[in-house]
Amino acid sequence: MKLVFPKCQDLAIHAFFPTAVLIIIAIFTYETIKSRNDARSELHNQALMVGLVIASGVQEKFNAKFDGLDFFIDFVNFPKD
């Protein structure tokens, strides 16, 4: 039985980069929830949208599976109090 290891570049593209994007989205989501009533919340919402656009592009280009992406898209459109 022969073990086949992926190239480092493929591993970085298919595993590390999408994971890093999701971690960045999670951080922006946390900051958005934390500062929802602050004046900065609009800036955090815009940053979250940029992260979602990047994650969507990664998903389409590399066929990565983002199970929580629909949740984040719905979360961005939450009603303001």
TrEMBL record:
<protein>
    <submittedName>
        <fullName>Uncharacterized protein</fullName>
    </submittedName>
</protein>
<keyword id="KW-1133">Transmembrane helix</keyword>
<feature type="transmembrane region" description="Helical">
    <location>
        <begin position="12"/>
        <end position="30"/>
    </location>
</feature>
<keyword id="KW-0472">Membrane</keyword>
<keyword id="KW-0812">Transmembrane</keyword>
